[in-house]
Design goal:
The chain is of the alpha/beta class. The protein is about 50% helix and about 15% strand. The strands form two sheets. A seven-stranded mixed beta sheet has the order 1-13-11-10-9-7-8, with helices on both faces. Strands 3-2-4-5-6-12 form a six-stranded parallel beta sheet, sandwiched between helices. Helix 7 (about 160-170) packs parallel to helix 8 and helix 11 packs antiparallel against helix 13. The two termini are about 15 Å apart.
Length: about 325
């Protein structure tokens, strides 16, 4: 089974306890109502009768990034259940993302979900949202800045902890020299991943910066590195779409370096199954989108705040070949 890190175990245990207590306390009538709500949610119908609030999610995604498709799938499912009108927009340029957040504020949305990959560019506009009385949840990136910026909570993976998990896994696999491939300049989460890996990895680790918007350039850069340094025995990519490209680069370079990656999609699951990838770090993007919408709804409906002032962790979870068969069916439907 996939190895779940400590923070995820703790959150899962608390969640299970809450759900268990809720179910145990249901009367026969309450149980029937719960079943009715679940049936409605499964049909994509609202399971509640709260007002038709509008929530906007604004991320730093570039075009065609399948990771964010999975985040949206989770958010849309929760929005349907919670009777929420869900709006999504994105831009990989931080200043453009900030403008999209401002546009959502101007639309007077009832709640905002924002990523903080480049936090300095978003700080002022997040403050504007709060001044306008719009509750903000940060998701995916920016866990360290979230509370300081005044967000209700952060939902996602602690990138440093995730990186540390990668370093430990590389040690277990006997790796001695690794390359961490950063595909987006200035993304603090990416820097934290590589720094976390370096912290726990007992071998040598070097950062390799590439232009993530240009896959041929990504492949050429990794290939050149592997050709020039035959001692590299592991390549770590920071996003699922870059893993197959790294595999091709290793093949072209005649390198036996193992390719590992952050994030999961259908192609990564297949590559784990056939052995072309060593392991993946799943931060459960579907859960990030789903919980972000659900937490905002809980706050609007009942003034609930999840996390107790700490980030709500959705990862890291180390996925290997042993897990790929079970997970592949979920990747095909766009939820993992």
């Amino acid at each position: 089974m996939a190895r779940v890190r400590t923070g995820v175990r703790a959150f899962s245990a608390v969640l299970a306890a809450v759900l268990g207590a809720t179910l145990a306390g249901c009367s026969s009538t309450g149980g029937k109502r719960a079943e009715e709500r679940a049936a409605k949610a499964a049909q994509g119908r609202a399971a509640v009768d709260t007002p038709r609030w509008t929530f906007a999610m604004v991320t730093h995604s570039g075009d065609g990034d399948t990771f964010w498709d999975i985040v949206q799938n989770g958010a849309k499912q929760a929005a349907a259940k919670d009777n929420i009108k869900f709006l999504y927009s994105h831009n990989k340029e931080a200043n453009q993302q900030a403008q999209l957040v401002q546009a959502a504020i101007d639309q007077k949305v009832d709640g905002l979900i924002v990523t903080l990959a480049k936090p300095d560019a978003l700080k002022a506009v997040v403050a504007k949202a709060e001044k306008a009385g719009i509750p903000v949840i940060t998701v995916n990136s920016g866990s360290e800045e979230s509370k300081r910026f005044g967000a209700l909570t952060h939902i996602g993976q602690d990138e440093t902890i995730a990186g540390e998990a990668v370093g430990e896994e590389l040690n277990e696999r006997g790796k001695k020299k690794a390359v961490c491939v950063l595909h987006e300049q200035g993304n603090v989460g990416h820097e934290q991943r590589c720094a976390g890996t370096k912290k726990t990895f007992k071998g040598d680790l070097e950062n390799l910066y590439v232009d993530g918007t240009n896959m041929p350039d990504v492949q050429a850069s990794i290939e050149a590195k592997l050709q020039s340094d035959k001692d590299v025995d592991a390549v770590v990519t920071l996003g699922a779409p870059f893993a197959p490209t790294a595999v091709k680069a290793a093949e072209q370079a005649g390198s036996k370096a193992e390719v590992d990656t952050f994030d999961l999609n259908a192609k990564v699951a297949r590559s784990l199954s056939d052995g072309s990838l060593g392991f993946a770090v799943d931060q459960q993007p579907y859960l990030q989108g789903y919980e972000a919408v659900d937490v905002l709804w809980l706050y609007k409906y009942n003034a609930d705040v999840l996390g107790g002032g700490k980030p709500v962790l959705t990862g890291p979870q180390i996925i290997t070949k042993d897990d790929s068969a079970d997970l592949e069916k979920y990747t095909k439907r766009g939820t993992r």
